[in-house]
Amino acid sequence: MATVLVFDIETIPDVAGLRRVEGYPDSMSDAEVAAKAMAERAEKTGSEFLPLFLQRVVAISCVIRRTTKEGAPQIKVGTLGNPDDDEKVIVQAFFDLVEKYTPQLVSWNGSGFDLPVLHYRALANHIQASRYWEMGESKEVDSRDFKWNNYIGRYHMRHLDMMDLLAKYNGRANAPLDGLAKLCGFPGKMGMDGSQVWPAYQEGKINDIRRYCETDVVNTYLMYCRFQLLRGGFTLQEYQEEIAFVKSYLEKEAKESNGGQWQEYLQGFAPDA
């Protein structure tokens, strides 16, 4: 099995960026700056959601599914960096994983949100990500492959945005991850949703944000497994074995963390998932 890297990010308003771009005075608190910026955005567009380049990344959670050199299946769920790491550290860590594994990237709305945000924040933080940006022009041995299948092309499969693909690249047909995951018998979102990340961050609940992001990325991996069954990448038996493998891993994580989010999450599986 090729290395699969499923990812999801959580963001908050980039208050320092808003001060620099919009000229908000230092006399305003961070909360006041964010509130004013969101109110002005809502007045212009009808939505408080800030432009993607002014979203600061506070968490990147991943599922890494690979086969070891010895042929053993391996899965790991986690959030990059430490809770107190700055944005540059966690964004660079994501692109370092791409550099190390050249994985199959999998996301839900990664083309519409996660990756554009990571592009902008990488620019702002002096990040280097040559493997990710490979498009068949370097001297790497496998460079030519990237001309026809790279992370940047919308219709290439090296990055699979399942929301985009399943909707046949039609935004009006997009399905929410939470709803579709539950429809397929998976647990869906737990703890919070994206709109609650900024209030939670202000209250110092970064660990809650990280846990929420991890459950979301597991939902995405489970949907990827179901998609592989759909397209013939898994037989029904292989699919069932993979779901059992994921559950077994989460049960171990729940035991080691004395419950954590995974104990509740495991209870959310429908019998026919």
Tell me about this structure:
It is built from eleven helices and five strands; from the N terminus they run E-H-H-E-E-H-E-H-H-E-H-H-H-H-H-H. The model has no long low-confidence stretch (mean pLDDT 94). The protein has a single domain, classed as Ribonuclease H-like superfamily/Ribonuclease H (Nucleotidyltransferase, domain 5), CATH 3.30.420.10. It is of the alpha/beta class and 273 residues long. The chain has a five-stranded mixed β-sheet, with helices on both faces.
What is the β-strand count?
5
What share of residues are in beta strands?
5-15%
* Contiguous uncertain segments of 5+ residues: none
CATH architecture: 2-Layer Sandwich
State the order of secondary-structure elements, H for helix, E for strand: EHHEEHEHHEHHHHHH
Give the helix level as a range of percent: 40-55%
Structural class by helix and strand composition: alpha/beta
* CATH hierarchy class name: Alpha Beta
Strand order of the largest sheet: 3-2-1-4-5
Number of domains: 1
CATH H-tier superfamily: Ribonuclease H-like superfamily/Ribonuclease H
Number of helices: 11
Give the overall silhouette: globular
The assembly state of the depicted protein chains is: single chain
